[in-house]
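Task: encode each sequence below as structure tokens.

Item 1
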Amino acid sequence: MANARLIACFILYTSLGHVPSSLGVILRTTDKIVWANEFEPIELTCLIESISTNNPRIEWKKIKNGVPSYVYFQNRIAGDLEHRAQLREPANILIFNTTRSDTAEYRCEVAAIDDQRDFDEILISLAVRVKPVVPRCSVPEAVTVGTSTELRCLENEGFPAPQYRWFHNSEELPQDPKNSPRLVNSSYSINPDTGGLKFRRVRKEDAGEYYCQAKNDAGHAQCPSQTMEVYDVDILGIFLKGFGAVVLFICVFATICHSLKRGCFDKKGHNENNYNWPAQNDGVDYGDADEGHFRHKSSFII
């Protein structure tokens, strides 16, 4: 009677979709989201909690941009992990040196033909951190007191995207200058996401050596230091430049007036308008047009 009840319970249990672990393959992993540093080893775990089949079929697939490709197939490493990975018991994948191209989703699949539940799979997401390279920094060579200026820092290789920090004379600038008694009167602001260092009004104390550092979880890199000089407003220089411009204008104006007074432009126009008049060297004085057709000279005898 007891055995009949046990069989009835088992039939009811299985009909509801519940399979005892001893009758089906079940997989698990220690981490479904895995981070790794570039060029360092990482192991993706695919642990078989329960299985009855002695030689199950194990496969790994890499899914990138929605497209799957084999990583482990027919008992060997395949694809872009060939010669860079190996299968470790029971079904783990060990990557010797990860690269940024390994960032993807990986699916472990186990088929066990002797188990009532003969298939299971588990999905693992791998993200490879990339250390930043030396950022490109832009620091103005010279600025004037009281003006605004911006220092720039940019790095495109690091993953995740790095955060930026600025250093002045080898000391890190705090995010908010009001947090430092020494910089409480400074007007700068730092954007840690874009790498910009902006001064609303430059002070003499802002002169010095500057460099930027890009940092993420994989490491950091910094650009060589560059010098920014700060000058006072050059009032004398501005006056001399303005005075020179006025003097130049007066000279040009005087030259034009003198040329007009000498009639240089009129004479040129007269010659251009009368260049085709015939020469009158025949000894006859024709006189003016309003005195008749012509008149004889006094030496003309009939």
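Item 2
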Amino acid sequence: MDIILIPGLWLDGTSWDEVVPALRQAGHRTHSLTLPGMESKDADRSQITLRDHVGAVVQAIDSVSPSGGEIVLVGHSGGGAIAHAAADARPDKITRVVYVDSWPLGEGGAINPYFPAENGEVPLPDWSLFDEEDLIDLGDESRAAFRARAIPSPAGVARGQQHLTDDRRYDVPATVIACEFPSAHLKKWMSQGEPNLLELSKLRDVEYVDLPTGHWPQFTRPGDLAQAILHSITPA
């Protein structure tokens, strides 16, 4: 099947490089997206919006399989919100959405309106602004490598409002790969009515896979992340 890999904030398509080989070895076709405005650190991203990123994923869906076929969307972090909106736009074309340390973002929500923005873009913040759970297994060397490769994200993507129109998105099967918090915590928070998880609670077919690490498993546990993705898309 075709696996479209959607990066989170500050990352381009190369962030999946250590995950892709195992997916291809298993016989799948992979498409690691670099979203608009994320082509380089020098790219002009001041006018890029969340809808632009969603549109790029929808275009990839249509290009990958114009006449149908099995398509899986894999979204990391903020890429999960984008994957969900793309599934909303093409619910009949998506076999499964895999949320990597993320979950679906509902109508009117924003990926992250809190990180500081400068000149229409959101640079990778200081590590002190992240929760300790985000940084599990991300040592000093890995943090330095991440910061060296990080590309500022468009403020219009991080802060833009999610817009959804097709309730068939709730029928698209989903997998949540839980990293910094175990899936048992997510289920508990949902049962308590956590607003950020309301959209997740509406999905009708969800499975959970625990992958204990920090927020960037493609860097800290790429092989295990690949296996978790494969497990989620392989028929029992």
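Check on item 2: The mean pLDDT is 96. The domain at 2-233 is CATH 3.40.50.1820 (Rossmann fold).
End of task.
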